[in-house]
Amino acid sequence: MPENQSTGPLAGKLALVTGASRGIGAATAKALAAAGAHVVLCARSAKELEAVEQAIFEAGGNATIAPVDLAEPDGIARLATAIGQRWQALDILVINAAAFSPLMPTWQIDSRDFNKTLTLNVLATQALLANFDAMLKRSKDARIIAMTSTVAASPRAYWAAYGSSKAAMEVLLDCYAQEVRALSGIKVVILNPGATRTEMRRRAYPGEDPETVKPPEVVADRVVELCGEQIDSPQRETINQS
User: Fold this and answer.
1) Is 102 helix (H, G, I), strand (E, B) or coil?
2) Is 66 a member of any domain?
3) Model confidence, pTM
4) 10 Å Cβ neighbour count for 117?
5) Contact 179/239 with Cβ under 8 angstroms?
6) Structure confidence at residue 3 as a pLDDT band (50, 70, 90)
7) Does residue 7 fall inside a structural domain?
8) Of the candidates 109, 122, 236, 117, the residue with the CA atom closest to the CA atom of residue 169
9) Checking CA distances to 198, which of 45, 75, 88, 102 falls within 20 to 30 Å?
């Protein structure tokens, strides 16, 4: 499909969004494309990514799908190689894909589920930083925006597996931000979307009325704003209910 003419505050920028097939990831990809960025859509389901890509094209934006399981060995390395063969620099990296462990007492955590959560939420985050570091450093003003959770900083009963994985993710990002601060224009934002209408939220709070929490588009709009603001890296913020 031919590319549309890019206009907007992010025109000429390349963005990669993980977990872009639905929820906050899909909304963020659409918002970045609407602001002019060319968005690489990453998730496991090619069919769902194609639907997001089609919506972006119909709205006049540009996108490329990159189906990949970030938890697979060498999956992120292959993704980085493919993107690096087409583009020189990566301007925006949105780390949104995450695994959610079933809520249960710490002593009952299933090791297999916990390993899956750690692999996607922690190991994949480090692999994304490692494999895209060079492309991010070639950008004049790169932004890494990673989605975290309230339970990373405020532990809660039964949330040990998910909360500890997000806490570890935050440490990785904070350390990376400090390491690259004097070497590049890379800025890191650790963004807590707060209560948002997503499938993960529905699984965590099955009795909640989804209409009582904000839609993912609110988070997506804030991501776009963060791509153009002057920030103190690493920056932490929470999006309250809107």
Assistant:
1) coil
2) yes
3) 0.95
4) 22
5) no
6) low
7) no
8) 122
9) 75
Type of residue numbered 6 = S
What are the pLDDT digits (tens) for 42-64? 999 999 999 999 999 999 999 99
Encode burial over 221-232: b for 16+ CB neighbours within 10 A, e otherwise.
Answer: bbbbebbeeeee
Q: How many domains does the chain have?
A: 1
For residue 198, the surrounding DSSP H or E stretch is none
CATH classification of the domain holding 114: 3.40.50.720
Q: Is residue 1 assigned to a domain?
A: no
67 phi/psi in degrees, rounded to 5? -65, 125
Task: Give 115-146 pLDDT, tens digit per residue.
Answer: 999 999 999 999 999 999 999 999 999 999 99
CA distance 155 to 167: 9
Tokens of 142: 């790169």
Structural domain harbouring 200: 14-238
Classify residue 199: in a domain, yes or no.
Answer: yes
Catalytic residue among 158, 162, 176, 205: 162
Write down the residue that tokens 């939420």 correspond to: 121
Strand partners, 95: 146
Helix, strand, coil content of the chain in percent (nearest 5)? 45, 15, 40
Q: Where are the alpha helices (DSSP H) in the chain?
A: 23-34, 46-58, 75-86, 111-118, 124-137, 150-153, 160-180, 199-204, 216-226
Please indicate whether residue 162 is annotated as part of the active site: yes
